[in-house]
Amino acid sequence: MGCNARALPFMSLQDLDTLLQQRHDEQELARRLSEPVSVEALIELGRERGLSITEDDVISAQLREDSDASSAELQKRMADESRRLRHFIQG
Fold it and tell me: N- to C-terminal Cα distance for the chain?
């Protein structure tokens, strides 16, 4: 095969970046992404636009975002998530 298997995840991560960039030009896409969407819905939005996005791409994008965040920002996110879980898990 002429395709480098290691390049595929990078290419699909680029597709995710492309999808997220397209929301600036597509009002309907921006509306759909303005609310929380499932990973499956995000993958389908990409597929509708001829993009190849996987669940691993979504995780990689989250890790990439976290690696760029400051310690204070990461702590704030963790605190926000903890508060949501406390309200979700009533005990």
Answer: 55
29 CB contacts (<8 Å, ≥6 apart)? 19, 22, 23, 45
Query: Residue 11's closest CA among 36, 45, 46, 48?
Result: 46
Please name which of 76, 75, 77, 13 lies closest in space to residue 46, comparing C-alpha atoms. Answer: 13
pLDDT at position 6 over 70:
no
The answer to whether 79 touches 38, Cβ cutoff 8 Å, is: no
DSSP symbol at 4: -
Residue 10 in this model has a pLDDT that exceeds 80: no
Q: Quick one: pLDDT at residue 43? A: 92
